[in-house]
DNA sequence: CCGATGACTCACG
DNA sequence: CCGTGAGCCATCG
């Protein structure tokens, strides 16, 4: 099934909102959790559209990196700051696997 | 309809 | 550790 952009946005927003503070999930992980077929790329685009409505800083790349920094370095440092505030360490600019949200 | 693009990911060397 | 290249697929011009 191919959900409308609105439904897809809702589904992604809901998954992202479920990531507990102090934990992170990768774009691909979120893509697997939504109730319809999705890819990491799509999730990235939806995150951009949801900017501000969800804890977007808890979503990182599969390697713990922050691809958002490529789009806007300022967002990258904001993400690192918010994560640090929740107790998530980001040594070397990437989140260690132990902080990944285990479902 | 075609081609380019991108908050991605993975395999290889 | 650091490119490179190939899949990925909704959107946009």
Describe this structure in words.
This protein is mainly alpha-helical and 103 residues long. Helices cover 47% and strands 4% of the residues. The protein has helices at 5-17, 27-33, 40-50, 68-71, 73-85; strands at residues 25-26, 59-60. Strands 1-2 form a two-stranded parallel ribbon. Helix 1 (5-17) packs across helix 3 and helix 2 (27-33) crosses helix 3. The longest helix has 13 residues, at 5-17. The chain starts with a helix and ends in an 18-residue tail after the last helix. The model has no long low-confidence stretch (mean pLDDT 94). The chain binds a DNA duplex (13 and 13 nucleotides) through residues 2, 5, 8, 26-28, 31, 38-48, 51, 56, 59-63, 66-72, 75, 79.
In short:
The chain is mainly α. The chain is built from 5 helices and 2 strands. The chain starts with a helix and ends in an 18-residue tail after the last helix.
Topology (SSEs and partners):
Layout: H1 5-17, E1 25-26, H2 27-33, H3 40-50, E2 59-60, H4 68-71, H5 73-85
Parallel strand pairs: 1-2
The chain binds a DNA duplex (13 and 13 nucleotides) through residues 2, 5, 8, 26-28, 31, 38-48, 51, 56, 59-63, 66-72, 75, 79.
